[in-house]
């Protein structure tokens, strides 16, 4: 039954009407963390609930919050390949290169998940290609190790590097 669900569960499931009712009841429930430090926004981002993410941001959810293991809404959205949420969060000036307990960054998670559009969006907004995971892998190393080389990753990353060089040449 829906009334028994927490604000975190409602956010993860995209139950906007019930979520709105819950949030009206308490002060700053919109940024209330659960036992893992996940706020409703982090749950909505992790499950690709774009409308819920949009509403939570409008209602004052803090997009900069990190959970206990340093998970960010941006990293969780990148992991799932939710490019629309990634873009929405980047528009809120979240740290694009934030790393979690595992040394993972949003870009590394997007590469790991084979989410090409997400990778393109992150690179276009300044994600650091040289950032290494705790394993020592850069995003390109990871793409090759996972066998994404034949896909679009190499092309996307090479195009990004070319753009950087072209920009440098014009300065």
TrEMBL record:
A GO CC term assigned to this protein in UniProt: cytoplasm
SUPFAM superfamilies attached to this UniProt entry: Ankyrin repeat
Biological processes per GO annotation: positive regulation of transcription by RNA polymerase II
Keywords assigned by UniProt, alphabetized: ANK repeat, Cytoplasm, Repeat
Keyword Cytoplasm among UniProt keywords: yes
PROSITE patterns: ANK_REP_REGION, ANK_REPEAT
Native source species: Climacteris rufus (rufous treecreeper)
Keyword Repeat tagged: yes
Domain of life: Eukaryota
Cited PANTHER family: ANKYRIN REPEAT FAMILY A, DNA-BINDING PROTEIN RFXANK
Lineage: Eukaryota, Metazoa, Chordata, Craniata, Vertebrata
Residue windows of the ANK repeats: 36-68, 69-101, 102-134
Compartment list: Cytoplasm
Name the record gives this protein: RFXK protein
Short name of one Pfam family: Ank_2
Primary subcellular site in the record, as a coarse category: cytoplasm
């Amino acid at each position: 039954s829906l009334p028994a669900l927490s604000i975190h569960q409602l956010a993860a499931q995209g139950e906007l009407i019930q979520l709105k009712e819950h949030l009206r009841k308490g002060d700053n429930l919109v940024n209330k963390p659960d036992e893992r430090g996940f706020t409703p926004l982090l749950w909505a981002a992790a499950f690709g609930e774009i409308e819920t993410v949009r509403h939570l941001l409008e209602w004052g959810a803090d997009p900069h919050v990190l959970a206990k293991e340093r998970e960010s809404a941006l990293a969780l959205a990148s992991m799932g390949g939710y490019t629309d949420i990634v873009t929405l969060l980047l528009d809120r000036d979240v740290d694009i290169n934030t790393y979690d307990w595992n040394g993972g960054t949003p870009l590394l998670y997007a590469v790991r998940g084979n989410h090409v559009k997400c990778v393109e969006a992150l690179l276009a907004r300044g994600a650091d290609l040289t950032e290494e995971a705790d394993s020592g892998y850069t995003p390109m190393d990871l793409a090759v190790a996972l066998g994404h080389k034949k896909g679009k990753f190499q092309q996307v990353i090479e195009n990004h590097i070319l753009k950087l060089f072209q920009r440098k040449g014009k300065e």
